[in-house]
Each structure stands twice: as structure tokens, then as C-alpha cells.
Amino acid sequence: MADSLVAYLEGLGYNCFIAPRDIDPGKAYAANLMTAISNCKLVVLIASASINNSEHCLNEVDVVTERKKPILPIFIEEFSLNDDYRYYLGRKQQIFAYPEKFEKYFSKILDGIEGYCPRTNKKPQIQEAEDEITEKATKTIFEYIPERGIMITPEDHQRNVSFRNDT
User: Fold this and answer.
1) Mean per-residue pLDDT for 12-41?
2) How far apart are the first and last CA of the chain?
């Protein structure tokens, strides 16, 4: 589920960090996580019942809270948080992404993210269309002929600008 959400968000132009994919090889796992938390604008937590048994996840939530980073909890099944998580997440706006297929909740998740995180680039399809328009609108005005040190107009091959090589 995390991979599908990351693919969706990155397709919209958001930068995402997901530990299994983005931890630098050969580097300390915990240090990479702490750097990612420090640099992020928002942490999205996908929560299932197994979260109650994860000390590592609890440590991350603790650091996120300590560093005053917003956290968006997304619950993918019905369960009760243990007291540790209730302490950190009990007063946060939560998204319940069940019982339907997870992808059906992506627009609601996006609404929760957009207030915190600007898109870092345009959606790839939009960027490709803009590149095509720019390419069509670009016209070559001069062509440089280095062996002669001149610029010519491609349509009529007339010299427009000369360069001296000795200056």
C-alpha cells in the first residue's frame, strides 16, 4: 500500500521518502531516517493493527513529534491504538482508508497532504506536453559555422554575424 501511495504522489510531482527504497546503501538506517524526518514537510503514517507491536515505528513517531513535524495517520483497517500511539496520534486528524480498495482514498489523502507539501515538479504528462509546445515554438534564428567563424540565417544562408578568432 505504501508503494502504491508513493507512486501516486510522485506521479503528481511530490518528493517522497520511503525507507526500504531510499535508505543510502552502507549508511546507518537510523541516521538516514532521522535526516529524512528533519528534512520533511509532513510524515504520512500508514497504520494497521501491527503498528501496536512496532517499537521502531513508535520511535519514529516520537522523533516526528519532537521535531514538530505534522503527521497524517492513515488507517487501513479497523483496530484500536495502544496507549503509546494514542498518546501521539489521538488528537490528530485521521484518514480511514478502508473498507474500499486503498486507491479509492488517494484523493482524500492528497487533500490532507496539499496543505503541507508543495509539489516539487509538474506532473510528467503535463511537463511532456509543455516541452512539446516549447519545441514547436522554438525557431532557429542563427546557425553557427565554426570553421568560418560566422553565423548565418538557415533559410537563406546569408551571413549575419562574424567572429574574429584572434581576439
Assistant:
1) 91
2) 63
